[in-house]
């Protein structure tokens, strides 16, 4: 199923609303102002998404937070943290120096919290704007290579919504990114609802 430019714009807008809410919550947690922006959104097959991320991250061990969703649409939502970005975010949010011995102990909790906030922000935006009911599983934290993070057993028949989220921590002039991956088994249903919403507006 090919996605039109208008449908892609609508998807990007939904994700932007969600990360905007997530950024507000993150700002309440820290002294530094964090901005989250989505430079681009792509709709890819699972294979194409895997190839794009594998080319970028090779054999890097990445941190990821993932949760399943069911309801009007179902699939898996995940946030992938490139290694440098993960260390930077954790250091800023916890006040620990990068590379300190205590950092690993708090890293999992911190990244899980960020993942939970960002994914829930985006899923909440999709659910609210499109007026669809959704249920979520508890988030799971994983550290692995992209090979093992991206290819769940049923992904071959799914569409992947790949969004690059760029975070800027203004006082520290730090820019990094996190990758939002939505494996939507019911992608056609999502697009149908988006088109109904576009028609109404």
From TrEMBL:
It comes from the Bacteria. SUPFAM superfamilies: CheC-like. Gene3D superfamilies: CheC-like. Coiled coil: none annotated. Keywords: Chemotaxis, Hydrolase. GO terms for biological process: chemotaxis. GO terms for molecular function: hydrolase activity. InterPro entries: CheC-like_sf, CheZ_family_phosphatases. This is Chemotaxis protein CheC.
């Amino acid at each position: 199923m090919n996605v039109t430019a208008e449908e892609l714009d609508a998807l990007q807008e939904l994700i932007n609303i969600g990360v905007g809410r997530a950024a507000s919550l993150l700002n309440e947690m820290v002294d530094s102002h964090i901005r989250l922006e989505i430079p681009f959104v792509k709709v890819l097959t699972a294979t194409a998404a895997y190839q794009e991320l594998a080319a970028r991250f090779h054999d890097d061990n990445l941190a990821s937070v993932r949760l399943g969703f069911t309801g009007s649409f179902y699939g898996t939502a995940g946030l992938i943290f490139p290694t440098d970005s993960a260390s930077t975010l954790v250091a800023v949010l916890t006040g620990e120096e990068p590379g300190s011995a205590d950092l690993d102990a708090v890293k999992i909790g911190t990244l899980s919290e960020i993942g939970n906030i960002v994914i829930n922000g985006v899923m909440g935006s999709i659910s609210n704007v499109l007026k669809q009911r959704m249920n979520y599983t508890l988030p799971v934290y994983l550290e692995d290579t992209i090979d093992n993070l991206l290819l769940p057993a049923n992904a071959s028949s799914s569409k992947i919504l790949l969004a690059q989220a760029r975070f800027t921590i203004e006082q520290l002039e730090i820019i990094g990114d996190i990758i939002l991956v939505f494996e939507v088994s019911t992608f056609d249903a999502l697009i149908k609802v988006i088109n109904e919403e576009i028609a109404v507006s």
